[in-house]
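Propose amino acids for all 100 sites.
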């Protein structure tokens, strides 16, 4: 393996470790894709998401962290966004972001 390939693998492992640390530090348990971005959210947002889906509460919203961004930032997800969300597994999120 040449140095360039080793550096690429090392960068991906570092990115994966940082992403897993971000997920664990924020208690993210629900993951979804909106457009091309991957998001994660904690338990209280998962509960709000479930209420929005089951009760059709058009006034409800919840916050989620954009994990695809170089600088993860919180976003507010509203009822009108639900049709554009695709719930995904944490490992799928990590794979898509790190390219593994």
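Proposal:
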């Amino acid at each position: 393996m040449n140095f360039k390939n080793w550096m690429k693998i090392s960068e991906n492992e570092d990115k994966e470790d940082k992403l897993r640390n971000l997920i664990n530090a924020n208690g993210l348990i629900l993951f979804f894709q909106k457009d091309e971005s991957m998001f994660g959210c904690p338990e209280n947002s998962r509960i709000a998401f479930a209420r929005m889906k089951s009760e059709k509460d058009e006034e409800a919203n919840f916050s989620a962290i954009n994990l695809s961004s170089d600088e993860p930032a919180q976003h507010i997800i509203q009822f009108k966004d639900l049709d554009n969300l695709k719930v995904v597994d944490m490992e799928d999120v990590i794979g898509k972001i790190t390219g593994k």
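Residues 3-25 form the longest helix (23 residues). Residues 27-98 form one domain.
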